[in-house]
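Appendix B. Raw example, untouched.
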Amino acid sequence: MPSGKSSSASAAPSSASASDGAGPRRLLRLIDVLCYAGEPMRLADLAAAAALSKPTAHRLLGVLTAEGWAIAHHGGRYGIGPALRGMGAALTSTGRQDSVERVIVDLQHQVRQTVHVGMRSGDRVVYTHKVEGDQPFAIASRVGMQQALHTTAIGKCILADLDVAALAEFVARTGLERRTPHTRTTLPALTEELDHVRCAGFALDDQENEPNVRCIAAPIHGADGRVMGAVSISTVTFVVAREEVLALHPPLAAAAKRLESLFMG
């Protein structure tokens, strides 16, 4: 009998240990599938590829999307999120002369204003990197903060990559909240603005997200040619005039090209 008790007691920790590690292993398998998928996948396909039940995969994807590691696309598909892309860029830049941080610090040194990098996360944009400007007036933002797509320069770069149907579906889902008197809150007005973005190659947020803040952004394209995010320069209107902001486009576009080479690996 004593030997039986001993056997039972020694088996319990082993069983508990295996149970404790099951959740992280499932999450890692799901991340692995997302990383190696060539395009966004349906929930059922992700679950099958990760050897998970659909309810478990759905629960874990909820965690990943909330933390920016995955993005929920229209039609119930999921793809790599901005946090995962940012980590990939950091890893692939190891040993290189360039890195995301170096690119945006170089840009900030040129323009002396606040610089952000943002990626799409569902129907929002999330800031993945930030360098403060030299001005005494701080921009109220932080890494990890989410913003609307239609009110921000980074978001407009992302929306400008959508076709007519996808843009209409986005507007129907979000409703285009009015953030300031300058916010575009109708589909025709937003469509006209995005036409300008595509023609110019950059987007401008002219006090549409926050009063007295004006931003210019250039798109960052992924390996598939689609816009995955953007890099922006943020200014305050009572320090930097609109014409001065527009003149920042050349160094901004150069930084976007450098970032594209990093994100493409």
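End of appendix B.
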